[in-house]
User: Fold this.
Amino acid sequence: MIAEAPPYVTLTASLPALGPLLSAKAPPINQPSLEHRLKALTPDDHREVTALRDVLSWTRLAMTESDPAFLARARRVEAGLRSEVLRAVLRDRLEIRTVVAALRRRHAGEDAPPAGEAWGYGRFVEIIRANWGAPDFGVGRSFPWVSAAREKLEAGDRTGFERVVLEAAWAAGTRRLAAHHFDLEAVVRYALHWSLVDRWARYDDDAATTRFGELLDGALTDLSQRMAER
Assistant:
């Protein structure tokens, strides 16, 4: 009798290689096909993967929910993950998002967030707030890409800014998950990297210009509202 392959082996073996982040014109598997294959996960695993992907979805960089609500949801997702590796993956990505949010806010002319304001996630929130005037917010050693991102932002290079941030997210996932091949962590690595490939493949200068303007307009609107409330 031939032993049945473990479910993670079967699933990961069915997923086509993604290749380098910036080289693909489209992911090697479309979203409906990916979602269908992820249904092979157990209900508990599928629920965790879905929650993790949702809170890290790149389209939510411009968040429609309030910062406190998003941060509370992210903490619930982190607490519900059974794998410490996946909890670390979530923290890594949300810390990147926090640095990006700080870059956007400062570029829009905002002062440092007031002490106690719920605006970022992870270990570096207070460091960034205390070093708001520093070019790298005092976190350049932990996030060596932040100076390049700032330069792209200040130069109005929308595509370059997006590229730097996506590459940072890709590198963070690779660092945490490269040693995983036939387990839940490997499935998560594929799903998260797929979203980055898909994001870049859909990206073009016209869309970048529109999205960049929307992000800055939103930041300026928030600033105006805060000033009016003072």
Notes: Residues 10 and 76 are 30 Å apart (CA to CA). Residues 42-224 form one domain. The chain has one domain: 42-224. The mean pLDDT is 87.
